[in-house]
Write a structure and sequence with these properties.
With about 130 residues, this protein is mainly α. It has helices at about 1-25, 45-50, 55-60, 75-80, 100-105; strands at about 30, 45, 115. The chain has a single domain, classed as Cytochrome C3. Helix content is about 35%, strand content about 10%. It binds heme C (3 copies).
């Protein structure tokens, strides 16, 4: 019995380890409406990382981010002005707009959209 339990435990740990990389990718949104056309890499926005820290309405109502991947037209000038990502990425709440590479971190050629199966069929879809 003990051996069986040990095998089960090892198997469970192995399964948990297997699923780790997938979770790290879960729900990343690529924003590439303008980036590559303007000569910078696509933006990777970790939706999950932000979701666990802030309420939905902070971004989707107060900041005006529409709940559909690829539907927002974001200009760097707006961010520096404190809109969209710039509401927080302003060197006060989080590191600021000068850290280009932290946001423009996508592989060249990635199209806009959500990666990792975080799409919903809820009110965000229309
Ligand atoms: C907090 C995240 C963030 C940081 C930091 C950031 N950007 Fe952006 N940037 C974005 C987002 C989001 C977009 C819109 C992406 C899209 O739709 O293609 C964007 C778009 C752009 C665009 C295309 C649109 C436009 O306004 O011309 C350029 C060029 C750009 N960024 C350059 C930069 C440079 C250079 C830096 C560093 C000085 C920088 N970005 C830092 C998030 C960021
Ligand atoms: C820190 C800001 C932020 C927070 C907090 C946030 N979101 Fe988002 N959300 C975004 C951005 C940015 C996008 C991508 C928009 C784009 O690609 O133009 C997005 C996209 C989405 C999408 C579209 C996904 C798709 O398949 O097209 C849905 C649905 C969504 N969010 C739901 C939520 C829900 C529900 C919450 C709260 C549990 C939440 N968001 C919290 C910023 C945020
Ligand atoms: C409501 C506030 C808020 C908004 C809006 C917001 N962020 Fe963030 N973001 C944060 C905070 C807080 C952190 C954590 C900063 C730290 O750890 O120092 C963070 C971290 C990040 C990170 C690093 C994630 C990691 O895995 O370490 C990236 C990349 C990022 N944000 C990109 C963006 C982009 C792109 C946008 C706009 C589409 C955006 N953020 C909008 C608050 C925000």
């Amino acid at each position: 019995m003990r051996v069986v339990r040990l095998v089960c435990a090892v198997f469970a740990v192995w399964l948990a380890l297997l699923s780790l990389p997938a979770q790290a990718e879960y729900g990343d949104v690529v924003l590439n409406k303008r980036s590559e056309k303007e000569g910078v890499r696509p933006v990777v926005f970790q939706h999950w990382f932000h979701r666990i820290r802030f309420r939905c309405k902070v971004c989707h109502s107060e900041l005006g981010f529409q709940m559909r991947a690829g539907s927002n037209d974001v200009l760097m000038a707006d961010i520096i002005d404190g809109k969209f990502c710039g509401m927080c990425h302003n060197d006060r709440i989080a590191w600021g707009a000068a850290h280009c590479d932290l946001c423009h971190s996508g592989k060249p050629g990635l199209p806009s959209g959500i990666y990792g199966g975080d799409s919903t069929t809820g009110p965000g879809r229309w």
